[in-house]
Amino acid sequence: MKFPVVQFFIISLLVTSSLFMLSTADSSCGGKCNVRCSKAGRQDRCLKYCNICCEKCQCVPSGTYGHKDECPCYRDMKSSKGTPKCP
Predict the structure, then answer these.
(1) Phi/psi of residue 84, each to 5°?
(2) 45-76, pLDDT tens digit by residue?
(3) How many CA atoms lie within 13 A of 45 on its CB side?
(4) How far does the signal peptide extend, from start to end residue (predicted)?
(5) Any bridge partners for residue 78, and if so which?
(6) Residues 46, 40 contacting (CB under 8 angstroms)
(7) Which end of the chain is less packed: N or C, by CB atoms within 10 Å?
């Protein structure tokens, strides 16, 4: 009788911790991209591409423009046309 309760408790902890990790990763990119795109003329497009780049590179340069040397992966990502993908 105790084994199913313990098993349920352990599974619940694992699910909760994995959901917490996913939510903090997304909010980290979202917060950094909100700052990065705060002065963009096309904010919706800027946020879309910034979040794509952040998920792949796990970093976003500081400020609203430039500073791409802080994150080489972010700097080096290119679109299919060869132009910089990340804002």
Answers:
(1) -60, 130
(2) 999 999 999 999 999 999 999 999 999 999 99
(3) 5
(4) 1-25
(5) 84
(6) yes
(7) N
Lookup: tokens for 72: 């080489």
Binning pLDDT at 50, 70 and 90, where does residue 3 land? low
Q: Which of 35, 34, 78 is nearest to 53 (CA)?
A: 78
Category of 63 on φ-ψ map: left (φ > 0), alpha (ψ -120 to 50) or beta: left
Q: How many CB atoms lie within 10 A of CB 52?
A: 15
CA 79 – CA 10 distance, rounded (Å): 44
Q: What pTM was estimated for this model as a whole? A: 0.66
